[in-house]
Specification:
The strands form 3 sheets. Strands 7, 8, 9, 10, 11, 12, 13, 14, 15, 16, 17 and 18 form a 12-stranded mixed sheet that branches. This protein has 286 residues and is of the alpha+beta class. The protein has 3 domains: 2-59, Structural Genomics Hypothetical 15.5 Kd Protein In mrcA-pckA Intergenic Region, Chain A, CATH 3.10.290; 64-148 and 254-277, Pseudouridine synthase, CATH 3.30.2350; 153-249, Pseudouridine synthase (2-Layer Sandwich). 18% of the residues lie in helices and 34% in strands. It starts with a strand and ends in a 9-residue tail after the last helix. Strand 8 (71-75) and strand 9 form a beta hairpin. The radius of gyration is 20 Å and the shape is globular.
Length: 286
């Protein structure tokens, strides 16, 4: 899903031209005809529809499913956005021939000029972006380093987490065993996570988590420190709690300003079906 917030009154077709400047009028009209365009969450097929300032135009994408369940949700000259499935590496960990999202994109596009600029854990799923070309990799890498973006995750944690919202702040240090632990300011790096409770069930709490920093295993460690580890997290939680045979952590939303066009980009990945079956209702705010 690509989202665009109007800054002034504009016709819907003209707004689509701003979102996709390289697309032909026919392609843009086909988006409308195929009911891929919504205005404030309502499908709109009128090219001449008059938008007001502050309205949100959303365009659903025809996702391409690649090897190992990787889905491309957006691409342009500078970047590629995917929905990574759980249990797939983002990038290679070593020289072994394990499948990973970066390698799958290299094979699909027949080039090695695609670069990883961030990661999500192997057992997690959701939105990732990759850079096309070294210049894009540099700019996107700087954006992630400064955390000049909005990253939202959905997690299912064990127990009844209280209160309904809050902020976790600590200093995290990676150990030689690759496990991340709380440390002090001298040895660790600051990590800040904001959380909101979406709902509760008998055994679990469903969370929306927004990262202010992006440290390795940040959310997983913060949930453990709060005494509510993520369900299915074998490293930071009890192995006996694994209700859907995977870690219940999903990268739901990634928003940032495009480093070359200056446009606001917004990518989301729908909640995994198993999350919904466990009791989490699909919600546009997640």
């Amino acid at each position: 899903m690509t989202n665009y917030l109007t800054e002034e009154p504009i016709k819907l077709l003209d707004a689509l031209r701003k979102i996709y400047p390289d697309s032909s009028n026919k392609s843009l009209r086909d988006m409308l005809k195929n009911r891929r365009v919504s205005v404030d969450d309502r499908v709109n097929i009128r090219a001449d529809f008059a938008l007001e300032s502050g309205q949100q135009v959303s365009v659903g994408v025809v996702q391409r499913r690649l090897y190992k369940g990787v889905r491309i949700i957006y691409e342009d000259r500078s970047l590629i956005a995917i929905n990574k499935p759980a249990k797939l590496l983002s990038v290679p960990l070593d020289s072994r021939n394990s499948s990973h999202a970066l390698g799958i994109l290299h094979d699909y596009f027949h080039t090695d000029q695609i670069y990883a600029v961030h990661r999500i854990d192997r057992e997690a799923s959701g939105v990732m972006i990759f850079a096309r070309g070294k210049q894009s990799a540099t700019r996107l890498g700087e954006m992630f380093s400064s955390h000049d973006l909005n990253r939202v995750y959905t997690a299912i944690v064990q127990g009844d987490l209280r209160p309904d919202q809050g902020t976790w702040k600590s200093y995290l240090q990676e150990m030689e065993s690759y496990e991340v632990r709380t440390s002090d300011e001298k040895h660790g790096r600051e990590a800040i996570t904001h959380y909101n409770v979406i709902r509760r069930s008998k055994n679990f709490t469903f969370l929306k988590l927004t990262l202010e920093t992006g440290r390795k295993h940040q959310i997983r460690v913060h949930c453990r420190e709060a005494a509510h580890p993520i369900a299915g997290d074998k490293m930071y939680g009890p192995p006996s709690c694994n209700p859907i045979s995977r870690m219940c952590l999903h990268a739901s939303l990634l928003e940032f300003v495009h480093p070359f066009t200056g446009k606001k980009m917004s990518f989301s990945a729908p909640l995994p079906t198993a999350f919904v079956k466990l009791g989490l209702i699909r919600d546009k705010t997640v």
